[in-house]
Design goal:
Chain lengths: 312, 312
Amino acid sequence: MSVDLSAVQAAAERIRPFVHRTPVLTSSTFDAELGAHLFFKCENLQKVGAFKARGAVNAVLSLPEAERAEGVVTHSSGNHAAALAYAARICGVRCTVVMPDTAPAIKATAVRGYGADIVWCKNAERQATADRVLAERGGTFVHPFDRDEIIAGQGTAALELLDEVGAVDVMVAPVGGGGLLGGTAIVTKSRCPEARVIGAEPEAVDDAYRSLQSGVRQPAVPTPQTIADGLLTGLGERNFAILQERDVEIITVDEPAIVAAARDVLERMKILIEPSAGTVLAVLRREPERWRGLRIGLVLSGGNTDFAWLER
Amino acid sequence: MSVDLSAVQAAAERIRPFVHRTPVLTSSTFDAELGAHLFFKCENLQKVGAFKARGAVNAVLSLPEAERAEGVVTHSSGNHAAALAYAARICGVRCTVVMPDTAPAIKATAVRGYGADIVWCKNAERQATADRVLAERGGTFVHPFDRDEIIAGQGTAALELLDEVGAVDVMVAPVGGGGLLGGTAIVTKSRCPEARVIGAEPEAVDDAYRSLQSGVRQPAVPTPQTIADGLLTGLGERNFAILQERDVEIITVDEPAIVAAARDVLERMKILIEPSAGTVLAVLRREPERWRGLRIGLVLSGGNTDFAWLER
């Protein structure tokens, strides 16, 4: 059975003690710029610095006791790794993360800080290495986005947003593998059937855009070059179907627009977001006339970043 | 009559439609570092980017109609200027701000953006210039901190914090003129009589520290050299009395500690604070053993800053 609103509501109940109910911020500056009413769901202020904590905690808490005892395994170079390590720690579950040797040292430090084991591999051998770890150690593989419990968990951010501000006309979330956008679309179209759900995607990794345009899921861009390092992966199979069914629209943005949006959010809203999260404001700015008078939810996906891009 | 808890509660009612109820954030990182439970009241996410909106809105809304019609005047190089301009705009009141020619251009832009007039002067002639403007144009002078309605308004931040998290053992706020610390002390000692109220002050402008140590209000440091540009002014007369009566303790911190705290808050909590606000974490770090197991409220005063200090 695919994920629906009730699965997201159940996830929200399940994860509540272990994640933040993040604030929803408004900005008179950006409202004036776009002539709209913007509601920013601040997942940059979430545990482990990103929405990924929601799905990971839901996934681990959803495992039957016997499976929990075997531990969890994933591969990730980024926020999902830290999120699953965090989720495993709060549940007292063993966690092994396969990380590509290109992963930033700071991410490895975070993963180790939550008590997870790291197995290093070459970037192209992530799945093979995870399969080997599973064969040797046992445990449950928790995919970063192509898994129902993950999608339901990520949907809880939009659920909280709508609970707090009421109905919206438009909802925007970034899209990489599509777990966040998928969960967001499920919640939004259930609660506000007339609303438009928009995925924000860097031009440089536009496989979700091409997938929805063509109606055929496109492979991930092989050597992605974007500052939005949370959005490198290709759209997952489950999420492709969810986005198709809910008539989700993808808008792409170029690199300078992403950086400008992230910087403007820092300067005007006083919060640090990672460039991946900047895409949601950037896509609105591409068609400024389109949003006049509308109520728009935006999911700021995370805040794990250094400051190198600020100096550009 | 001096300011008391009921004056702060009345201010909270009065200003509610015009200011944000800012979020209270926690940080497992800083909790672990200090072995304490920290609650950060995020006034960097307030209207005009600082707690000053609270006092200014309360002051303007508290004016009788006849006085409102005459307009308001102040002198300020920083957040109070923008806050009073904002308060005047929402009340439809004329506002004139005397600004020293050393004020940053960005502050003048903000003040003009709210529709206020600016009269420029030399830094030493701020009060004289304001007096001349008052003689010429009439209106009410709204002092940035040595005024009851301002102190009551600033106290609403601590009131919201305590309403949200319950009693604390320690409350920390920065001290410049003392409006924020005074209002914070009034609220905290009324609600939690056993709590310790601490003012965070840069070593370079330690007049509040020396005032409370000596029992005699000390003059402002004449040529203050600190990155905490919100804390340059000397402690006000009303506020000195309030701090004395409530046994407030001042802890001073040096410049590198202020910068490190502001940077760490950005990196770990994903929020941008101005260096002045970094003082509250910096003072706790000076005596790390002292806070074990305690519940500590911290008022992050504002977020109006460029990024120059980040690159230090």
